[in-house]
Write a structure and sequence with these properties.
The protein folds into 2 domains: about 55 residues, 2-Layer Sandwich (Signal recognition particle alu RNA binding heterodimer, srp9/1), CATH 3.30.720; about 80 residues, Roll (2,3-Dihydroxybiphenyl 1,2-Dioxygenase, domain 1). A hairpin with a 4-residue loop joins strand 2 and strand 3. Helix content is about 15%, strand content about 35%. By secondary structure, the protein is an alpha/beta fold. A 4-stranded mixed beta sheet has the order 1-4-3-2, covered by helices on one side.
Amino acid sequence: MKSNLEHLQVNVDAKNLGFYKDLFGFLGWKTLYEDAEVIGFGCESGSSLWFCPGLKDLANDYDGRGMNHLGISVEKQSEVDQAVEYLQQHNIKPLFDTPRHRPEFSKPGSTYYQVMFETPDKLLFEVVYTGPKES
């Protein structure tokens, strides 16, 4: 059997849909569907992300059970830095001393370069580049 990620549904507060629309537009994702309560995005691989209203008003704890973070890959190390600039322009602070290289996650001759941040819904996101280290 061969499988791939088809889609993820992420429950959020509908008042934050604009945040996700701006972020994923910046990241180059295509809007697949949008209304007042739901927005869906597709990437080049065919996977999609759907942001929908949560049925319960509970706070997310990414250190608890459930998904810890959502990682979005980019093609160039410099694009992580561009994401950092985007976040700073939107008053979103990088977390965990990022951006930074993570040699413990990379193979010899390559790098794992990341920025981690929290969304308005307290979800943990990562923008990451893996590949040859750029100078």
